[in-house]
Amino acid sequence: MIFDFGGVLTSSPFEAFARYETERGLSLDIIRRTNAANHLENAWAKFERAEVDIDTFDKLFATESRALGAEVRGRDVLPLLQGDLRPEMVEALKRIKAQFKTGCITNNLPANAIGSMTGRSLYVAEVMVLFDHVIESAKIGLRKPDPRIYQLMVETLKVDPEKCVYLDDLGVNLKPAREMGMTTIKVASGAQAIAELEAATGLKLT
């Protein structure tokens, strides 16, 4: 069982993005469109692979969003990422861990990227110990949807991809896992994800 973190075990940051855009009178979805444009090599991708520092990310994101119609500073986007833990997903993870190997593949940012993140590191740490292995993009310089990151997880856990279930909230990140033979679940809500997980594992997760 392999999980993404943000948008799966936490609520989606997309709600915070939309709130930020509305408050500032920006065109809706400018942040998501900036993230999606040239998604393998844009500011976001480089930051998640720890190839640029926060100042460079801030400027690159501003330039990229300006090209799409409205300037958004990269520094302003970072605090919007936090999301709230979904307790029902954490409970499901605990039950799954009792029966199966568990892994987490997360596209994340360098540890010092967001000062305000330190307050949440304790409760995140409590969740992270539920995984047999965690792969963080900023630590290894690879990020989803690069197929190598999924291969690395499968090899580390010593599991057959055809017997794996992978959960993510982004379709683009599910595709490589599906191509390797994994069962994939696109997470839209905790309840929907848990229902699909129960069907895939045969476990009672609530």
Q: Can you offer a commentary on this structure?
A:
The chain has helices spanning 14-23, 30-36, 43-48, 54-67, 74-77, 87-97, 121-128, 137-140, 147-157, 171-179, 190-201, and strands spanning 2-3, 103-106, 133-136, 165-168, 183-186. It has two domains: 2-12 and 84-201, HAD superfamily/HAD-like (Rossmann fold, 3-Layer(aba) Sandwich), CATH 3.40.50.1000; 14-81, no CATH class. The chain is globular. It has eleven helices and five strands, in the order βααααααβαβααβαβα. Strands 3-2-1-4-5 form a five-stranded parallel beta sheet, sandwiched between helices. Strand 4, helix 10 (171-179) and strand 5 (183-186) form a beta-alpha-beta unit. The chain has 206 residues and is an alpha/beta fold. Helices cover 47% and strands 9% of the residues. Residues 115-119 have low confidence and may be disordered.
CATH top level of the largest domain is Alpha Beta
Which overall shape is indicated by the principal axes computed on the Cα atoms? globular
Low-pLDDT segments, ≥5 res:
115-119
- SSE order, one letter for each helix or strand: EHHHHHHEHEHHEHEH
Number of domains: 2
Give the radius of gyration: 17 Å
Largest sheet descriptor: 5 strands, parallel
Looking at the overall shape, the CATH architecture of the largest domain is 3-Layer(aba) Sandwich
Mean of pLDDT: 92
Helix content: 40-55%
Distance N to C terminus:
17 Å
What amount of the residues lies in strands? Answer: 5-15%
Given the structure, what is the number of helices?
Answer: 11
The CATH superfamily name of the largest domain is HAD superfamily/HAD-like
Number of strands: 5
Question: Could you say which structural class the secondary elements and strand pairing correspond to?
Answer: alpha/beta
Keywords: Acetylation, Hydrolase
InterPro entries: ACAD10-like, HAD-like_sf, HAD-SF_hydro_IA, HAD-SF_ppase_IA/epoxid_hydro_N, HAD_sf, PGP-like_dom2
GO molecular function: hydrolase activity
Protein name: HAD-IA family hydrolase
